[in-house]
């Protein structure tokens, strides 16, 4: 007996649909806001960086401009990922959002290299930095990026955790990571501008650039690895496969669980499949055992469970099949 059950079907259809639409619209609004803020603010940064002779600000302007393009791509991919399944894409288009997460991480790393080169040049050809201008740009940067971060974060929060669209997918996580890093980066620039004002140590501008680049590069690398692991269908971090198998084998009537696989489509919507061998002597029906298995799988945040019921006589010849 093969059975598939999508956990979303157990929810109240009408209410669930409205909640999902509201969630998607809020997240889309947050992404759109982040795009325009990054685009316009990068232009302000270029002008401000030139006027203040700040390498850190000019480097971050290029960084923000690249991210604006990446976020624009993310908005497009989010729209595509919401399309319904087709005969060619039987799981739907959810994984398309991973492409923008992958691209954003790569853009961040490229930006880090550019920032490091700019920092090196600032040491070779030092210039006087206008600390007051840096200070005001830092305050503006904190306000702009902090506001965008909160909008996207609040767009992903709520009571959806544990469901198919619970939490943030890798795409939104990548963008939130960038905005949070920018907030921390501007806080460092703010402190640096104060230090330069009182000491005249212009080389601090280059040091700030290197620190921001290394911090962003480290976190972008981690997000890149996470995204690649999803694309390679690794077991989701929030699913303990061994513990799941152990708990399933404790269900009354189940003698063995094998060929168990769990992966995620986009970092939040998990898919699982397994073979369950049932005993001839159990008083429970195959349907009851199947229901118990699906309940346990859903408790482990598997929204798309598929189960094949077998008996001792017709089970796989090799349990690792």
Give your account of this protein's structure.
The chain is α+β, with helices and mostly antiparallel strands. The chain folds into two domains: 220 residues, Cation efflux protein transmembrane domain (Alpha-lytic protease prodomain-like); 71 residues, Cation efflux protein, cytoplasmic domain (Alpha-Beta Plaits, 2-Layer Sandwich). The chain is built from eight helices and four strands, in the order βαααααααββαβ. The chain has a four-stranded mixed beta sheet, with helices on one face. About 9% of the residues have low confidence. This is Cation diffusion facilitator family transporter. GO terms for molecular function: zinc ion transmembrane transporter activity. It holds the Pfam family Cation_efflux.
Shape from CA axes? elongated
Element order: H for helix, E for strand: EHHHHHHHEEHE
The proportion of residues in beta strands is 5-15%
What is the share of helical residues?
55-70%
The helix-and-strand class reads alpha+beta
Could you describe the largest sheet, including whether it forms a barrel?
Answer: 4 strands, mixed
> What is the CATH architecture assignment of the largest domain?
Up-down Bundle
Q: Assign the CATH class of the largest domain.
A: Mainly Alpha
Strand order of the largest sheet: 1-4-3-2
CATH superfamily of the largest domain: Cation efflux protein transmembrane domain
Let me know the average pLDDT.
Answer: 78
What is the radius of gyration computed over CA atoms, rounded to a whole number of angstroms?
25 Å
- The poorly predicted ranges are 7-23, 157-168
CATH names the topology of the largest domain as: Alpha-lytic protease prodomain-like
């Amino acid at each position: 007996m093969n059975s598939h059950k999508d956990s979303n079907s157990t929810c109240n259809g009408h209410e669930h649909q409205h909640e999902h639409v509201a969630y998607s619209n809020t997240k889309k609004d947050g992404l759109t806001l982040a795009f325009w803020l990054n685009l316009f603010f990068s232009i302000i940064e270029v002008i401000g960086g030139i006027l203040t002779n700040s390498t850190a600000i000019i480097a971050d302007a290029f960084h923000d401009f690249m991210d604006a393009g990446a976020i624009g791509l993310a908005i497009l991919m989010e729209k595509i990922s919401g399309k319904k399944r087709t005969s060619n894409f039987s799981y739907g288009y959810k994984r398309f959002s991973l492409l923008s997460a992958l691209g954003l991480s790569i853009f961040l790393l490229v930006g880090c290299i550019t920032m490091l080169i700019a920092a090196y040049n600032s040491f070779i050809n030092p210039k006087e930095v206008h600390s007051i201008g840096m200070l005001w740009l830092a305050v503006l940067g904190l306000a702009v990026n902090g506001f965008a971060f909160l909008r996207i974060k609040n767009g992903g929060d709520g009571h959806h955790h544990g469901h198919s669209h619970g939490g943030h997918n890798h795409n939104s996580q990548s963008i939130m990571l960038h905005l949070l890093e920018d907030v921390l980066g501007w806080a460092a620039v703010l402190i640096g501008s104060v230090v330069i004002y009182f000491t005249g140590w212009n080389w601090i501008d280059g040091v700030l650039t290197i620190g921001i680049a290394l911090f962003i590069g480290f976190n972008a690398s981690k997000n890149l690895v996470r995204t690649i692991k999803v694309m390679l269908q690794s077991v989701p971090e929030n699913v303990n496969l061994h513990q799941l198998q152990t708990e399933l084998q404790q269900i009354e009537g189940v003698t063995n669980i094998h060929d168990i696989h769990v992966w995620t489509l986009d970092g939040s919507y998990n898919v699982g499949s397994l073979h369950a061998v049932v005993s001839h002597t159990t008083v429970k029906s195959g349907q009851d055992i199947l229901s118990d298995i699906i309940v346990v799988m859903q408790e482990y945040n598997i929204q798309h469970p598929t189960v094949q019921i077998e008996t001792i006589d017709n089970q796989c010849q090799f349990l690792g099949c």
